[in-house]
Every structure is written in structure tokens, then in C-alpha cells.
Design brief:
The structure is a homodimer of 117-residue chains. Chain A has a domain of 72 residues: Jelly Rolls (Sandwich). Helices cover 0% and strands 63% of the residues of chain A. With 117 residues, the first copy, chain A, is mainly beta. In chain A, strands 2, 3, 4, 5, 6, 7, 8, 9, 10 and 11 form a ten-stranded antiparallel sheet that branches. The interface between A and B is large, with 36 and 36 residues.
């Protein structure tokens, strides 16, 4: 389908995280080259330090978080653009009382997640 | 740079459109497989019917618009997800008094735009 609304899309729990869910906005069955997902981390939640074998292109649509990328830590909120190169360790911890929400795109390549904690 | 904010990114005018500007959020010089851009169409503006040789994956972050995709017309707003396959004619006309804003991703492949009006 060409047009959907995010509120109509099924939510999947992400077991590696605490309070982390994902919606598949445009899957690799629907598009040839990259997939669009939306992640939500509930206030007080986190995603532990991990690597992926593919890069991430992200756009924050709500909430606030600390994001660790390699040895750096950033504070991000709505309107921040985040690029995580393939293989670079990264983590998220929410800030404040709102859910942290971001769009995250990955290429159509095999991805393996390794949790480092 | 791993983290930016959209408000810090330069705006470029899109001459094929009326009231259309683009920000390059993550360019193909910064990432290997796909680019992230943000388009803004001012209230009363439009993007004429056109084709691209690459697909678009889009997420609406503000405003409202009519979007034509092939023979179909959709009304979209914040939270809508739009997929435009390569080669399919598409156009945008804003609705209401707010600028229409959307994230738009394209693969790292040659793109040629053909205006059909």
C-alpha cells in the first residue's frame, strides 16, 4: 500500500531493550533498497550498548534521550538527525517524562545485532 | 558528523516546485546506501506531477497535503508513511495554513526527474 498512518501499524516488542517497541513502516518486502521503522522507548526505558552489521539513519520525532555512539554521548530531541555507521557500538537512555520516538532506516543487507553489556 | 539538528541545516530552493525547499539531512557523501532529506512546501505551494528513476520512502512530520501517486490521490498529515515506487508519477498540493513537511529517503542510485505537466 502506498500510504499508511503510523497509528494503524502493529507494535512489536524489542526484547533486547527495556520499554522498547518497533513499528515496521516500510518493510523490505515492500521496498527494494532500505526499510523504514519507528522505535519508541518509554520514559525510563533504554536500549543497551550494541552493534549492528548495517548502518542506521535516524530522525527523532518526539521525546528526549541520551544516545551513545562509539565513545561519544549526545543529548537528542525532536528534529535531531542521527547517523550510526555499521559496526559502531550505540545505546539509548530516555530523558524526561515523554516516550522517545525516532524513525530508523536500514539498508537491505543482512543485519546481526550484538549486545555488548 | 554523527548528530545534527534539522534547524542547523542549510535550506535549498527546489526550482521545479512552488514554495518548495529541501534540507539534506544525511547525504550520499556521509552514508553509503541511501540519503535522508526533508522537504518543506509552504502553505499554498505545490510540487507538480513528476517521475523519478528511484523510489521514495517518506514520513510526514507536519502540515497537510494532497498527494497524487499514479492514478490515486491521498490526503496526508503528520504520521503518514508514503511509498512512491521508482518511475511512478507523483505530485503534492498543500492543504490548510501550515507548511507541509516530510522526510524523504532515496537510494544511492542515479536519479533523473521528469516533470509531466
Amino acid at each position: 500500500m502506498s500510504v499508511k498512518h503510523i497509528d494503524q501499524i502493529e507494535t512489536t516488542n524489542i526484547p533486547n531493550g527495556t520499554g522498547v517497541t518497533r513499528k515496521m513502516l516500510i518493510s523490505l518486502e515492500e521496498a527494494p533498497n532500505f526499510a523504514m521503522r519507528c522505535f519508541t522507548i518509554q520514559a525510563g526505558g533504554r536500549m543497551p550498548n550494541h552493534t549492528n552489521t548495517v548502518e542506521h539513519e535516524q530522525y527523532v520525532i518526539g521525546g528526549r534521550a541520551q544516545v551513545g555512539i562509539g565513545d561519544e554521548v549526545f543529548e537528542v530531541q525532536k528534529g535531531n538527525v542521527v547517523y550510526i555507521p555499521a559496526g559502531v557500538p550505540h545505546w539509548y537512555t530516555t530523558l524526561g517524562e515523554e516516550p522517545f520516538e525516532f524513525i530508523c532506516l536500514v539498508p537491505n543487507q543482512p543485519d546481526s545485532t550484538t549486545v555488548l553489556e
